[in-house]
Amino acid sequence: MKKILLLISCLLALGIIVHGDTRLGQFFINHQATSVTSQTKLPQYRRILAISPALQEIVLALAEPEQIVAVSPSSKNSPIPEVAQAAQKINGQISERPGTEEIVALHPDIVLLPIVFSRDQAGILADMNVNVLPLGIPNGYQELKARLLLIAEKLGLPEKGRALTDQMDKKLARIKEKNKAIQTPKLVIAYSVNGAFGRKNGSFDNICREAGAVNGGGVVNLKQGEHLSKEQVVELDPDVILCARSIQDSKIHQDILHDPAFQTIKAVKNHQVLLVEDRYISSVTQSFVDAVEAVSQLVYPELWDFD
């Protein structure tokens, strides 16, 4: 008889929890329902495809390797160690500028596409019922953060996005604290393999602004694709010239150092023609704050304790 009563008690208890007739049972049921609802609202992508090294850098920081269907060779050979290490875990590979057929052949469940060179392609993919997230180039740090958070949200990884932007904010806040000691902002000109660049509101312009410096290209309202002439560089008389390391010992680099027309420039006279890693003169990813820090350390070494 006792065994029968015990069995009935257990069945009743089980029925109460399953049907939610007690506070304890209702708690478990509500908690489970809430969790399931939250998960169904967030997409669960397993074949993410980002087109461009910059977008791949962002996705590699947010998603797990098994969620990413392919990356380009430039990501696997990235000068950023954490990007290269993460990219090496991805088996699939895609071209740097893939055609529509190559993209579709990978069967991605979402494609992140920079519309700066792929606007028509984004439309074609959308017409083929491919899930496309077209993305523009951010102008400034706030837009850069907003784009990163948008990507994280669309990938169903909003918490990772917020964690990443929080880290960026903290690092930038430390740099801005150091900027308070700057009395007169220095004018900076950057050189890459194509010459002196830095369009107004472009990546380098934004890096300089956050580092407390003035971009020479921005001063003359340089447009996308334009470069400063020798005469403009001389007239601007920069305090610092930053040369991408990829042009070290090139004709451009040697001309800056030895061209008679440049010998009156403050940067040349004061030995402030400095080499910088290429990734620090242009960035529209979470590495932007690292670029700001690197430029700040080169332009204002007195603000930093290198001991």
Secondary-structure content class: alpha/beta
* Percentage of β-strand residues: 5-15%
Total of helices: 15
- Number of DSSP strand runs: 9
Tell me about this structure.
The chain is α/β, with parallel strands linked by helices and 307 residues long. 51% of the residues lie in helices and 11% in strands. The protein has helices at 2-19, 23-41, 53-62, 73-76, 81-87, 100-105, 115-127, 141-154, 158-179, 203-210, 216-219, 230-236, 251-258, 266-269, 288-299, and strands at 48-50, 68-70, 110-114, 132-135, 187-192, 195-197, 214-215, 240-244, 273-276. The strands form two sheets. Strands 5, 6, 7, 8 and 9 form a five-stranded mixed beta sheet that branches. The protein has a four-stranded parallel beta sheet with strand order 2-1-3-4. A hairpin with a 2-residue loop joins strand 5 and strand 6 (195-197). Mean pLDDT is 87; it is low at 2-40.
What is the fold's blueprint, element by element?
Blueprint: H1 2-19, H2 23-41, E1 48-50, H3 53-62, E2 68-70, H4 73-76, H5 81-87, H6 100-105, E3 110-114, H7 115-127, E4 132-135, H8 141-154, H9 158-179, E5 187-192, E6 195-197, H10 203-210, E7 214-215, H11 216-219, H12 230-236, E8 240-244, H13 251-258, H14 266-269, E9 273-276, H15 288-299
Parallel strand pairs: 1-2, 1-3, 3-4, 5-7, 5-8, 8-9
Antiparallel strand pairs: 5-6
